[in-house]
Records
---
Amino acid sequence: MESYTTQFGSLKSYQKGGVQVIADRVENYAFSNVFEICSSARPYERVVFGLNQIYVLEAVRAEGHSPWFLCAHDEFVLCMDGAARIDLVEVDVPRLPEDKLGAVSLPNPPEGTPMGWIRIQRGHQALLPSQCAYRFDSATPSVLVIQTCKGDLSVERWAEICQRTGAAEEAEGGR
Amino acid sequence: MSVAPVVSEETGALGANRFGYQKFALGSFSFERDEYFAHIAWSHGTHTMDVGDFLRALMRDVAWGFFYGYVHFDSVFGTCNHYGTVDVFAGTYNSNYKRAGVDELQNHPTDRVGATFVAMIEDWTNEGFDPFAAPMETGSPYGPNRGSNLEAVRRARSTATRCVGLDGDAPLRTDGSGYPVNRAFADVDQSEPEVHAEPGFEDRVHAFNLFAYLSRSDVTWNPSFTSVVKHSFMCPTTEEHILPIVHGNDRVEWFFQLSDEIHWDISTRDTAEPRSRVIMKPGDMAAMPADCRHQGFAPKRAMLLVWENGSPKIVDEISSGQAPVNPVDF
């Protein structure tokens, strides 16, 4: 029976595909790679690499302790490389307005009730429930993708992260 | 003396032909299959498709509830979802058919088209053929009518309302629930996250292994919903061989390549002129503009995260020009 090897990427080893333009603008595809983005991102910077009206997917380099974050709506985090611990706290204050989009960072550790913790690694996805503070901790550089709405912490730098020429850039990366 | 066929008002079934397959009518369209082909006819044209290709496309159209926008079975025949009604067309988005005036488009209530298409997929799919499966994982679609495969064609798409694995939401896939790890993902780590919930928070401290969940998918090219933020839908799927339809967008969607590799052919939505090819490898992200059609090719079973915006306003916003067809301007 044929055996297969599933190919995943990582900060240490990834290959980019690319857009091969025939009659088009390469920018229409906003083509990027999450490992390339996170290889140069600052820890816990939330780099938007998918945008659909109010919704975003954010690429996050997890390294060390993150700030405490809070969001009025659910968010989800998917680990694409490495591992991270997530601590969750049901906050007494502050609660965010229900229509506030995206996460905010808290200046101080939240006051409230510890809800528990989760350890995720590559392929694992976790719920970051609405109105609950959370913090990431990762001993080694890791890659997270957050499903959320565009908010105060969302960083857009499309010209830096996206393919800009029409021929495919079959780049390789990693250390 | 010939006897007029009795038409089922619900499904449009006209009775079986000499190969044992029902013929169907839907407005001015008629559908018939023989041992190798599906034959489609309308008032001023006819069309023929390999029946395996036709059934794989029909299966997606049925399972997705006509999906977002356009489902092209091939360069001639397809459907367009108006979310309450469905266009059934032949040649409408093919410039030469349009120029020759042999195209046809009819709009019907969704339930009406659905009833015909469901009856067709159930009657035309033989025992041993699974139109959802990769070609190497199923039998032949050809030959005269020989039974059915209702278990396969009646699969319900898994659609979480908040997150897979939460109480009351879409369940995880396990050996016990009939979802063994697929042969192409035998090496995918099946470990579950460590979840330590304090008493009373068990329903909100939640995580699962998405890659393991996908490794156990028994279908190809069939996105499910695994997590939902307002109208932001994570729709991951496993892809192998060719996307059996060409999908024409009515909104922007995004593809995030989780594993392995998929090649996409991108064309103009309404006239099918080639625009680009997009080669996607693990970690790659690409938008599919709202004015394109696309078809994917996966040499090895791959995990793809299709990310959708399910806002009920988005189609009108894009078609009226209030929202752009490209998601980002830079």
---
Amino acid sequence: MQKKLWKFGTKEVVYAAIGAALYGILGLATNLLQLPSAGNVSIRPAIVIPMFFGVVFGPIVGFISGFLGNIISDLLSGYGLWFWWDLGNGLIGLISGLIFLRIVTYKSGKEIVLAEIFGVIGVVVGMALASISEMWVSGADIKTVIFGNFLPSAITDAIWGLILLPILMIAYAAVNKRSGR
Amino acid sequence: MLVTWHYRVRNGLMEKFDPRARWIFSLAFLFAVTMFWDARFLLFFFVLAFAWYFSSKAKWKETRRGWLLIGFILFMMIVVNTIITGGGAGGVVPKGGHLVWPAGLFLLGWKIPFDLTWERLWFAICQIMRISSISAIFLIIPYTMDPRQYGVTFRGLGLPDSFAYSMELAFRYVPTLARDFTTTFDAQRARGYEIERVKGNIFKQIVRVAPLIVPVTMNSIMMGEDITDAMDLRCFGQRPRTWLYQLNYHWQDYVLISLGIAMLLVGIFSLYVFHIGGFWVPAFFIH
């Protein structure tokens, strides 16, 4: 079947929901497990989920996985709702998903590199939007936003994504082949 | 892993409002409050936000975790950035100002270069009012909004059926995925995997999270195929959906929405027509 970038049919509805629930659960679980972290930066390996769902199922699925998943994670952890950070997480999935049409085998080196590049761009844009919104909401200046919000969140998210995204893509290629899809 | 929503029926005043009206009010509040740095306006929003917060009847014990996080953010943003380094006040507080310690701050006989101004101190008070008002409005949402109503709420706010259904499905899928996660985690532990003892450099630590994330993700993708097939067989998306929960506006919802819109309009007119509401320091505060 031919892939369409902005399609949102039954399959996309289901995988957007699964991606969001998965991001919410894994985000909460890894926070509770208290993985070794540096400084006060909240690390979230689950950030790879919106990237992966974007790459595999398209930008809309990626966006919903990140946006709604972050909402679910915050709802479960009791941290309240922070709309601009939800939107930033959604953008990570959306931008990662823009490469969706070029990804076919999920395991070739070229496809993995492309997915990684779009994932990192997504992290930079998403976290920049969320961080800059703190200037508007909290009155923080640009230096505070860059060094206090943007760099810690973007660097950790990019590292998690760069390492875990290829692992998930290769695993998905194997599952895809075995299931005959 | 125990996954529970924080929502409980508390019979608070807040729960008498339609969730759609509450979202409209919350977002209008956010946009309105961010137009002001004048403490007189911010005080109004602060009182309104906490009156709204306390109308939920949520207990401190329940919301403590969220407030601790907000307290930490406020500390970093205000004490460190605005008061100590002066960074957080950039762009709003004019350069210069009246020093709190004009002769310098002396500690154990040492003169410490600390140019805190009364203007920056007042800005810190404004920041506390503004950030805690926004926090009170948004922190309380998970505790007072029924997760079963998110889908129909956003459908009612104009989101297409398919998107709203995706939200609904995600909320319903959470307990299933939490169970799968626990099963996978237990199975990996039985094989000797211990996430608490993940050692090595940052890259090794990240790679070792994979045995937990990969099986849960792949398992849910496989299950997604079955759900898609079941929905396709039931002709999903061919006609507008009906929803299990029905929402209806009542008079109090119109009052709340009107209040939200009024706040926005007052903000827009104050800022762009009358040019008031910007940063202002009362004369009595500057010695």
